[in-house]
Amino acid sequence: MRVDLRSLTTQVERVSRHYAERFGITRSSDWHLLKLHEEVGELTQAHLMRQGQSRQKGLSAADLDARFAAEIADVVCHALLIAAHHSIDVQGEIERKWLSRMP
């Protein structure tokens, strides 16, 4: 199954726009980049927790796995939001930079 990143980006953009309106956030270039950094930090924390290198806060192995997966999704979605903010076609760039080199 091929993921349609353009459609996914449109859907993620809709969710983010609603979130920003609800909380009075201006989604500037800086906000997008800083939000991605926040999410990468949360992913890092989830990874360390899964690896036993950070407090696990009483979470089960399944909870830690779920948290890690959710943070991966957040990082991917915020990367898509940055791209959309700068009118970058991520799907086209992936096809150009990565998939064109497939053996």
UniProtKB/TrEMBL annotation:
Domain of life: Bacteria
Identification of the protein by name: NTP pyrophosphatase (Non-canonical NTP hydrolase)
Organism for this UniProt entry: Pseudonocardia kunmingensis
